[in-house]
Amino acid sequence: MKQTPIWFPGTMHLAALMLCGCIPTQPASHPDLVWGQRGHAPGRFDRPRAAVIDDRDLLYIVDKTGRIQVFDAEGKFQRVWSTPETENGLPCGLAIDRDGNLLVADTHYFRVLTYTSEGQLLPDKTIGGEQGQGPGQFNFVTDVAVDSRGDYYVAEYGQCDRVQKISRSGRFVLQWGGHGSEPGQFIQPRCLLMDGNDHLWVADACNHRIQEFDVSSEPPRLVQFWGTQGTQRGELRYPYGLAFDGEGGICVCEFGNSRVQKFTLAGQFLAEWGRPGRGPGELNQPWSVARDSRGRYHVLDTYNHRVQRFRL
User: Fold this and answer.
1) CA distance 256 to 1
2) N or C: which end of the chain has fewer CB within 10 A?
3) Beta bridge partners of 7
4) Distance separating alpha carbons of residues 312 and 273, to the nearest angstrom
5) Cα 308 to Cα 222: distance, rounded to the nearest angstrom
6) Mean pLDDT throughout 66-78?
7) The pLDDT of residue 193
């Protein structure tokens, strides 16, 4: 069945604002595009859980079936493929490397897969695949990021909550973290985001905080961490997704609070969008947020099985 996006033109701004239920410190955003519904046909989703946008504004989304679907920024379906194995569990992280390839955190197979943008698997670029706590071994891989040199950073949880640095050639370099709530430790690091200064931002989900590391030094240096568990503005509950705003800020997608908040890089609250619900502008345990070249945010409204696009 053909999917019909739902548009919210400017004349419906007030109604969409009321549905959104946001009262940020600046005028609330409303979705200008809502698309997708539950199903396994192309263009439909079963709990979409990770998204990334490439430099052509193509949106890659993986859902709980192990399918990777590609859309343009208007929600138009382009193509689909599936990860090789799904019996043990499904991927939960996506990134783009310096060559434009798609990196897939194949969580329950303890590895990172690499695909071309057209969906061709590149087996010689697979990272990991062996379960364990040793260097270069992984437990449940959650996400991956790439620095300016092309080196990889892979987050995991399970027997150890850590980040490992893997060279561009696939060689283990170093690791840091460990299970805990002290600065530099993690409890389920869910999302990794690399900025232009080779600072790695980590959504430390079960510590309800964001940590920033300078990975240009060895060992990586903890720059700052911020976040307090709660439901009020500026507080966090299970941050799962991160996206830079292109203006010196960062957006945090909260699984626990069913909203997106915008902060300065120092952690000062700026704005929020969304509230729990099923209507347009409402979210149901979202997992991921990605920003396109036009400054629009695409939110995986996971348990509503859809995508919503908005501005903050």
Assistant:
1) 32
2) N
3) 33
4) 7
5) 34
6) 97
7) 98
pTM of the prediction?
A: 0.90
Q: Which residue has the tokens 């805990």?
A: 180
pLDDT tens-digit map of 170-182:
999 999 999 999 9
Alpha-carbon distances, residue 257 vs 11, 48, 210, 268, 305 (angstroms): 29, 17, 15, 18, 17
Tokens of 108: 């329950």
pLDDT > 90? residue 14: no
- Report the relative pairing of strands 221-226 and 209-214 from DSSP bridges: antiparallel
